[in-house]
Write a structure and sequence with these properties.
Strand content: 25-35%
Protein name: Selenide, water dikinase
Structural class: alpha+beta
Strand order of the largest sheet: 8-10-7-11-9-12-13
Order of helices and strands: HEEEHEHEEEHHHHEHEHEHEEE
Largest sheet: 7 strands, mixed
CATH class of the largest domain: Alpha Beta
Oligomer: single chain
CATH topology of the largest domain: Phosphoribosyl-aminoimidazole Synthetase, Chain A, domain 2
Organism: Eubacterium plexicaudatum ASF492
Number of strands: 13
Family: Belongs to the HypE family.
Number of domains: 2
Radius of gyration: 19 Å
Helix content: 25-40%
Keywords: Kinase, Transferase
GO molecular function: kinase activity
CATH architecture of the largest domain: Alpha-Beta Complex
Length: 328
């Protein structure tokens, strides 16, 4: 299999179809496209949990590990509480680099007032670069959780900020020397600084308070992957105007340089939402200084259509993230 997400057919057949044991306390479990699980702990409250590894980069890995997990919890409408970290390290790593990763992780936690609650740290021959796997824990009121599967026919589809910003920042950092032979230093530095936009906690909070029906953090597989996963989870079709999908010029030019597709590039920092009145949510987000656009609608049936003025084509199931073509 190719590096990246396991293909959806394989995931269903060999992973999800093997899970049979159920507990009544589990309110939201494993499913295509869902970022979190939820467990009832009291009459009116539940714990919300997520898990994710950071494998595509080693630069700023401590910060990214926390940010991605907080984004997953935010996409479920949950308040983040803490994380547990499994840190796997190669033999060649120095204590200084290990300390730096943990300092990054703690600084990221401090920004959103969450705690590193525990975990496991190990040096192992199984990895050739640092790998951090994070379990995130948050809380939400019962009945208030937002799922990826909440989109319904006729709802507006919203994208916040810009697609590809995480992948652009990673490429600008990992391939800085190479990019500086083609782009100006100011251009590359601006692309590197895209990591300042990776939190989706602010837009998730606003959207939850203004009637959002579904949210999905746009991560591996890019916006095409996120659109497919929300449509699959919600059992709806899509009509998406490609011209409205927000993308920064830096992302376009760096993707052109590496001959990769920005619409299939890892995009943490961008949130995909579905809502009955998408324009009202966009207005509220814009008031808070968060760029957002209604890009299309959910439809009856299973046709998932991308269109421009010149063409219409069908969205395909998620592929391996474009980042892995450049950084591996």
């Amino acid at each position: 299999m190719k590096i990246g997400k396991v293909p959806e057919a394989v995931l269903k057949r060999s992973v999800l179809n093997q899970i049979h044991t159920r507990r009544q306390e589990v309110l939201l479990g494993a499913s295509v496209g869902e970022d979190c699980a939820a467990v009832a702990v009291a009459e009116d409250e539940m714990l919300v949990m997520s898990t994710d590894p950071i494998t595509g980069t080693v630069q700023d890995i401590g910060e990214l590990a926390i940010q991605i997990t907080v984004n997953d919890l935010a996409s479920a409408g949950a308040e983040p509480i803490g994380v547990m970290l499994t840190v796997l390290l190669p033999e060649k790593i120095s204590e200084q680099k290990m300390r730096h990763m943990m300092e990054q992780a703690e600084a990221a936690c401090a920004k959103v007032r969450i705690q590193i609650m525990g975990g496991h740290t190990e040096v192992t021959k199984a990895v050739n670069q640092p790998l951090i796997s994070v379990v995130g824990v948050g809380k939400a009121k019962k009945g208030k959780i937002i799922t990826t599967s909440g989109a319904r026919p006729g709802m507006d589809m919203i994208i916040t900020k810009w697609i590809g910003i995480e992948g652009t920042a990673i490429l600008a950092k990992e391939k800085e020397t190479q990019l500086l032979t083609h782009f100006t230093a100011s251009f590359v530095n601006e692309a590197k600084a895209f990591d300042r936009m990776l939190s989706v906690l602010p837009e998730a909070t606003i959207a939850v308070n203004h009637g959002v029906a579904a949210m999905h953090d746009v991560t591996e597989g890019g916006i095409f992957g996120a659109l497919w996963e929300m449509a699959e989870a919600s059992d709806v079709g899509l009509e998406i105007d490609m011209r409205k999908i927000p993308v920064r010029q830096e992302t376009i030019e760096i993707c052109e340089y590496f001959d990769i597709n920005p619409y299939e590039l890892i995009s943490s920092g961008s949130m995909l939402m579905a809502a009955t009145d998408g324009n009202s949510i966009v207005r509220e987000l814009e008031k808070a200084g968060i760029h957002a656009v209604v890009v299309g609608k959910a439809r009856e049936g299973n046709d998932r259509v991308l269109y421009t003025a010149q063409e219409r084509r069908f969205l395909e199931p998620p592929k391996s993230d474009e980042l892995y073509k450049v950084v591996s």
